[in-house]
Specification:
The protein is of the alpha+beta class and 306 residues long. The chain has three domains: 72 residues, Roll (Ubiquitin-like (UB roll)); 55 residues, no CATH class; 103 residues, no CATH class. Helices cover 36% and strands 23% of the residues. The chain contains ten helices and 14 strands. The strands form four sheets. A six-stranded mixed beta sheet has the order 7-10-11-12-13-14. Strands 1-3-2 form a three-stranded mixed beta sheet, covered by helices on one side. A three-stranded antiparallel beta sheet has the order 4-5-6. Strand 8 and strand 9 form a beta hairpin. The radius of gyration is 39 Å and the shape is elongated.
């Protein structure tokens, strides 16, 4: 028996429905973003092309002239080094310190050893040496400034004056103005410890450095009259004794306000200056508001006039 085949129509989906909606036009902001993206992509491609070209040219130079850069550096003797500093050192000091052999080239210089020579001077806080091919050596340094002086025995010679920096480093000093050095007070009551060819940094002088800085800033006239500062009782009693050029001694407390003590000392000195019949000898500022004052005999010239 024959059976008729029945063909069923294929099922349809929503995709078969005609769409008569126009696509949404791109907004101005969207067009701007697309333009920026295209520009960036173009710039990236251009940069890649330029880098590739530069690398190719360098490869050709190295291939055609092997050792050209090294040969150029070795063919030019080093010029006098260039010194860049924040202090007082000059090119004469630099030439003496580096002691470069005549005819030296940049490639022959031992930069580590040269930097060690520069830093061997305690006046130098930091140093950097830079080569500028083909023939220039640049030396950049930062210097320490002295805040006081100290007498030290160096070798078998007579004691000589050395300088002391804020961080306690002791150094000989080069290039400083003589009048400025004469205005610095001597530091006493300190034990020097030898280290290598010099001395180890002084420890425990921070209170004295703070006192000197405060005095120079707030009472420079008083500070200029200071001849020496004794630190022998600083660690045991917390006291700093200042000796003035006229023989007066002032005792400060390292635990008190230096500004208040300087103000009291200034008032007492001003009052004594108005009375020529008495001379200040000792002023003990370490006891706070109660300041014991010791007067000495009157000036002989004043006594004779009376």
């Amino acid at each position: 028996m024959n059976k008729d085949l029945i063909s069923l129509p294929m099922s349809r989906t929503w995709r078969d429905i005609p769409q008569h909606v126009r696509p949404r036009a791109m907004s101005p902001e969207g067009r701007r973003r697309m333009t920026v993206g295209l520009v960036r992509a173009g710039a990236g491609i251009m940069a890649a092309v330029v880098c590739a070209w530069v690398a190719w040219e360098l490869a050709l130079v190295v291939r055609n002239q092997p050792g050209g850069i090294l040969a150029s550096a070795n063919a030019h003797p080093v010029r006098p080094p260039i010194l860049l500093t924040d202090g007082v050192l000059d090119n004469r000091w630099l030439a003496r310190t580096l002691s470069l052999p005549k005819g030296s080239t940049l490639m022959s210089l031992d930069m580590i050893r040269l930097r060690e020579r520069v830093l061997a001077n305690g006046q130098i806080a930091s140093a950097a040496l830079v080569k500028h091919f083909p023939d220039t050596l640049e030396v950049r340094i930062s210097e320490r400034a002295p805040v006081g002086r100290i007498l030290a025995q160096v070798g078998k010679d007579a004691p000589r004056t050395l300088l002391v920096a804020r961080d306690g480093v002791v150094f000989e000093g080069w290039g400083f103005d003589g009048a400025m050095l004469e205005s610095l007070p001597y530091l006493g009551g300190i034990k020097l410890i030898r280290q290598g060819g010099g001395f180890a940094p002084l420890s425990g002088i921070a209170p004295a450095v703070e006192l000197m800085a405060m005095a120079k800033l707030e009472a420079d006239t008083l500070y200029q009259s200071w001849k020496a500062i004794d630190l022998s009782r600083l660690s045991s009693d917390g006291e700093i004794e200042v000796l003035a050029r006229d023989g007066m001694r002032a005792i400060f407390s390292a635990n008190g306000s230096y500004l208040r003590q300087l103000a009291r000392l200034n008032l007492l000195c001003a009052a004594a200056a108005g009375d020529p019949t008495r001379t200040l000898r000792v002023i003990d500022l370490a006891l706070g508001s109660d300041v014991p004052v010791t007067y000495g005999p009157p000036n002989p010239a004043v006594s004779a006039s009376h």
